[in-house]
Amino acid sequence: MSDAYYLQLTEQLRTLIDQNAAQWKGKLPAERPLAERFATTRVTLRQALSQLEGEGLIHRSNRRGWFISPARLIYDPTRDAGFNDYVRAQGRQPRTAVLKLESRVHPPAARALGLPDDQPFQHIRRRRYVDDRAVLVESLWVVPERAPELLDIYAGQSLWGLLRERWGHYLANRSIRMVSEALSPLDAEELSVAPGTAGLNINRAIFDDQQRPIEYDEEHWLHDSLCISVELSGQR
């Protein structure tokens, strides 16, 4: 098939999705009937579907098929609002699953916080959902001295709410790094997508109001799940 046909098929699929989104209730028909509908091969169909996936219109879930992507979450990584708060503020439903609680070293976190490479951390691994779609997996690396026995009491609640209420820590300074990525096999498996799926990596090094290192966050988002929006103000 020519490139012109592949692009034409992409536009035909876009129109079909727009016209049938409500009827399909978020899930596209299987690839075989779609290919038959357009009298094309599944290889060419997948090219067109992948194009729409790259645009964020649809997404694929392992062993479940293709789905229409919901509206992107508006996300400001510089704000102090927790995940649950800003998801609910946009009329959506958040959920968190704790995947792992452990103590171990993690040199990238130590270096970001200005600590020795052999600094141990309390590691929290969790998966976060918006409207029952897994959109994010993250690792939180907390300095043990700042939150003794954290792993014994953590159960998926707001980490910074817990740090503030139980140990009196207030977020004061942080550095934020964002870069596009191809999801690793582990991150992809935990998000039920194929390895190499486009993602967004957001890392934060966080310090309290006394300039003490508190934690390092490593977030791995699905690329079509959020829109980064940062509000800035200043004087000339």
From TrEMBL:
The keyword DNA-binding applies. InterPro entries: Bact_HTH_transcr_reg, Chorismate_lyase_/UTRA_dom_sf, Tscrpt_reg_HTH_GntR, UTRA, WH-like_DNA-bd_sf, WH_DNA-bd_sf. It holds the Pfam family UTRA. GO terms for biological process: negative regulation of DNA-templated transcription. Residues 3-71 form the HTH gntR-type domain. One of its GO terms (molecular function) is DNA binding. PANTHER family: MANNOSYL-D-GLYCERATE TRANSPORT/METABOLISM SYSTEM REPRESSOR MNGR-RELATED, MANNOSYL-D-GLYCERATE TRANSPORT_METABOLISM SYSTEM REPRESSOR MNGR-RELATED. This is GntR family transcriptional regulator. The lineage of its organism: Bacteria, Pseudomonadati, Pseudomonadota, Gammaproteobacteria, Oceanospirillales.
